[in-house]
Amino acid sequence: MTKPFPYKLYLVISQEACCGRDMLWVAEQAVKGGVDLVQIREKNKSYPDFLESSLRLKEILDRYRVPLIVNDNPLVAVNCNAYGVHVGNSDLPPSEIKKKWPDCNMTGYSVEYLEQLSGTEIQFADYLGVSPVFSTPTKTDTVTEWGLEGIAKIKSITDKPLVAIGGINETNAQEVIQAGADCLAVVSAICAADNPTIAAQTLRNLIETA
Ligand code: TZP
Ligand code: MG
């Protein structure tokens, strides 16, 4: 069964991606511009630091009623009362998350291989990350570069909401939506923008007029 997925612009944020600026400030500016879902993705933090950053971020997002998703770590997600968790092939699979954490509202699952679509795990995911759509310096340990054709292909196989990620910016946002993505996820297009509010507004407009 597929739950409604009303989100259009998904910010994936880490302190490192924010070019020396406070991640909490960047997140708040982005939400003011139209980001409607936020994922905290901290690959190098200890558990206590990851949890502390997540708690702080959640406090801000709660003010705007924007849900928080935690990357990789269901324990952090549970302990900061996040809305959900996002996992990939090297993490706890969605079926296990649903078993261990039945109250989890949303489990995102990265699709990196076509074979995943014939496996059993995708049925336990609430959305699929099409990862990456385009190659990106933000994440270099990627497998398939799906491209626009990849989005269309995945769309023809599953009715799960598709979140496109990887190399998405103002120049390609509309074609990614037109190819079948339900939501765009970005790191650098917002975290590295001089003005994260304007960057988010611009992307949001492009999505809505695609
Ligand atoms: N997963 C697939 S690509 C990516 C992640 C986390 C990074 C996307 O970063 P950017 O800067 O939006 O290309
Ligand atoms: Mg992961």
TrEMBL record:
4-amino-2-methyl-5-(diphosphooxymethyl)pyrimidine binds at residues 39-43, 71, 110, 139. Its EC number is 2.5.1.3. It comes from the Bacteria. Mg(2+) binds at residues 72, 91. SUPFAM superfamilies: Thiamin phosphate synthase. Pathway: Cofactor biosynthesis; thiamine diphosphate biosynthesis; thiamine phosphate from 4-amino-2-methyl-5-diphosphomethylpyrimidine and 4-methyl-5-(2-phosphoethyl)-thiazole: step 1/1. 2-[(2R,5Z)-2-carboxy-4-methylthiazol-5(2H)-ylidene]ethyl phosphate binds at residues 136-138, 167, 187-188. Its cofactor is Mg(2+). The keyword Heme does not apply. Residues 9-190 form the Thiamine phosphate synthase/TenI domain. GO terms for molecular function: thiamine-phosphate diphosphorylase activity. Keywords: Magnesium, Metal-binding, Thiamine biosynthesis, Transferase. Pfam families: TMP-TENI (PF02581). The keyword Chaperone does not apply. It catalyses: 4-methyl-5-(2-phosphooxyethyl)-thiazole + 4-amino-2-methyl-5-(diphosphooxymethyl)pyrimidine + H(+) = thiamine phosphate + diphosphate; 2-[(2R,5Z)-2-carboxy-4-methylthiazol-5(2H)-ylidene]ethyl phosphate + 4-amino-2-methyl-5-(diphosphooxymethyl)pyrimidine + 2 H(+) = thiamine phosphate + CO2 + diphosphate; 2-(2-carboxy-4-methylthiazol-5-yl)ethyl phosphate + 4-amino-2-methyl-5-(diphosphooxymethyl)pyrimidine + 2 H(+) = thiamine phosphate + CO2 + diphosphate. InterPro entries: Aldolase_TIM (IPR013785), ThiamineP_synth_sf (IPR036206), ThiamineP_synth_TenI (IPR022998), TMP_synthase (IPR034291). Binds 1 Mg(2+) ion per subunit. Belongs to the thiamine-phosphate synthase family. Condenses 4-methyl-5-(beta-hydroxyethyl)thiazole monophosphate (THZ-P) and 2-methyl-4-amino-5-hydroxymethyl pyrimidine pyrophosphate (HMP-PP) to form thiamine monophosphate (TMP). This is Thiamine-phosphate synthase.
